[in-house]
């Protein structure tokens, strides 16, 4: 959708993103098959299908926001906002908008996955925390020592992206609970320079960290849904 608004051709779902979406679509098909076979009187399968489709939408929206942030970042050429033209300031504001939207979506997508995992693998995370995150669910795999092959792979992915996730999480928390991260930077730089020009944050580094977060989400979703599909196929065949 955003690509069309930006005058760009539609996205082709290839590589990791394509494989991840294909795995999730396959899960919805397996769930539909279960609904047809067993009528799903408790609506458990239907609920899982709806949640999986919601995750597909969340991943799509995250990728679009990352793309838009990258698109507008390339239009920002000055290091100081005071040196920008009116047009460039507008592009910088649009970059900030989509950048913030994207890093918030990294964690909201993971937390939605956590809700699905908790239900799918009976992890009883609500007994630990009423409002839990994906990372709380991840600890439940280790606590119950169940599905160690899946839990171990998910922990390895999280550890591989630990640094980028830590940075993005701090910015998400600042954005949601305290003040805009760029406002915080501005206050610090005002203190340092008093009446001097304020240099922008490192936009390329921020985009790189955001891309790392997106990569982590894709890898996590791919592992979860491929594992789930394989497990269900074995259960059905038995």
Secondary structure: helix percent: over 70%
C-alpha end-to-end distance: 42 Å
Number of helices: 9
Measured on Cα atoms, how large is the radius of gyration? Answer: 21 Å
Count the E strands: 0
Strand content: under 5%
Poorly predicted runs are 187-194
Q: How are helices and strands ordered from N to C?
A: HHHHHHHHH
Q: What structural class should be given to the helix and strand makeup?
A: mainly alpha
Morphology call? globular
Tell me the count of domains.
1
Oligomer: single chain
Q: Round the mean pLDDT to the nearest integer and report it.
A: 89
Largest sheet: none
List the helices and strands and how they pair.
Layout: H1 2-5, H2 15-38, H3 44-73, H4 86-120, H5 134-144, H6 148-160, H7 162-177, H8 181-193, H9 203-237
Helix pairs in contact: 2-3, 2-9, 3-4, 3-9, 4-5, 4-7, 4-9, 6-9, 7-9
Features:
mainly alpha, 9 helices, globular
């Amino acid at each position: 959708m955003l690509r069309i608004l930006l005058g760009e051709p539609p996205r082709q779902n290839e590589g990791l993103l394509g494989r991840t979406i294909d795995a999730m679509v396959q899960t919805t098909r397996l769930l539909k098959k279960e609904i047809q076979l067993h009528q799903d009187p408790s609506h458990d399968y239907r609920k899982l299908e709806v949640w999986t489709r919601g995750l597909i939408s969340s991943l799509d929206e995250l990728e679009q926001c990352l793309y838009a942030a990258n698109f507008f970042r390339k239009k920002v050429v000055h290091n100081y906002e005071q040196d920008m033209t009116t047009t460039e300031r507008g592009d910088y504001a649009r970059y900030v908008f989509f950048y913030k939207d994207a890093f918030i979506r990294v964690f909201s997508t993971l937390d939605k996955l956590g809700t699905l995992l908790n239900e799918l693998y009976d992890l009883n995370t609500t007994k630990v925390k009423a409002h839990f995150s994906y990372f709380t669910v991840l600890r439940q795999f280790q606590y119950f020592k169940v599905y160690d092959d899946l839990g171990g792979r998910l922990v390895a992915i999280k550890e591989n992206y630990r640094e980028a996730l830590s940075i993005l999480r701090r910015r998400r928390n600042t954005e949601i609970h305290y003040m805009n991260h760029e406002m915080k930077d501005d206050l610090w730089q005002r203190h340092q320079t008093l009446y001097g020009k304020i240099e922008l944050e490192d936009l390329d580094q921020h985009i790189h960290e955001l891309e790392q977060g997106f990569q982590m989400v894709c890898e996590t979703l791919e592992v979860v849904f491929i594992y789930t599909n394989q497990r269900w196929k074995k259960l059905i065949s038995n």
